[in-house]
Structures are given as C-alpha cells and as structure tokens.
User: Which sequence fits this backbone?
C-alpha cells in the first residue's frame, strides 16, 4: 500500500518585471493576476464580437505591450473558455514577439468557434490570459551525423 504525498507549504516566488503597456480604451482595466498564485494575467476584450460556428475571429485585447528582451509573451485561453464558450485559440497558442509593440500592434486573441452555435463575446470579458516566458535564441551548429538510434515518437513510450 502506497503512502499519500506529504502536504508541503509552498509559496510562489517570482521575479517582478517592469513592462511598458498602453491601453487603447482606458475605461477597461489593466491586465491582472486574479490570485496570488496565478502565473497568467487575464486580458480584457476591447470590443464585443459574435463568432459564427467554424469561424476564426480576432478579438482585440485592448493593450500594446513592450515584451522585454529575453522574454516572449505567450497567449492562452482561460481554462474555462473552451468548455463554457466553445472557443479555442485557432493556432493553439499565441506568441507575442519582442518587436511587436508599435502604434498599431494591439494584442488580439485569435479564436476559433468549434461549436455548432454562435458565440457572443462581450466587451470587457476575460477569455484569454498572458504569461511572460523566458526564452533563448539558437546559435545553430550544423552537424554531419546524428545518433544512429532513434528513441521513437508519436506514442512510442506507451
């Protein structure tokens, strides 16, 4: 019989990063972390939209962000959005590069309606979240040979 995991007290530690941000509509709030343990901050829809079944639509998120060097801004839907709304990100995730911060570079959430119903997204609604992720760039070193053995893929580990 296995023993249960011990309960450990954990405290989220994070590095605070100063991020330049511009709101398009100042009547909507800045993005915010909903709990002390949240790693993703919620984004607010600047304009309402109706997304037809099987349609892809861009929903403006009301902000222009200057992503700092060494980071990317990853966009993901809130976990409740697919189940409650029938929407998913059309490209799986969104990647906001460090140089996407010009006057017309408002972040937009690209959603796909996989349901059979029209989905109405309200102005001010939170359907997506952003997460700053540390990144590195590759310094490619081309090689002539690889390992002769393959570990397999596409379900090869069970």
Assistant:
């Amino acid at each position: 019989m296995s023993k249960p995991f011990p309960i450990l007290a954990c405290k989220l530690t994070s590095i605070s990063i100063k991020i330049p941000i511009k709101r398009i509509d100042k009547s909507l709030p800045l993005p915010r972390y909903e709990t002390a343990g949240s790693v993703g901050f919620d984004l607010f829809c600047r304009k309402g939209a109706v997304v037809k079944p099987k349609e892809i639509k861009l929903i403006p998120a009301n902000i222009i962000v200057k992503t700092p060097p060494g980071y990317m801004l990853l966009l993901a839907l809130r976990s409740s959005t697919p189940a409650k709304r029938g929407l998913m990100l059309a490209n799986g995730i969104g990647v906001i590069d460090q140089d996407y911060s010009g006057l017309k570079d408002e972040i937009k959430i690209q959603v796909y309606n996989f349901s059979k119903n029209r989905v109405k997204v309200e102005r001010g609604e939170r359907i997506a979240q952003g997460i700053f992720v540390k990144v590195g760039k590759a310094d490619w070193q081309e090689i002539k040979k690889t390992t002769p053995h393959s570990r397999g893929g596409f379900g090869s580990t069970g």
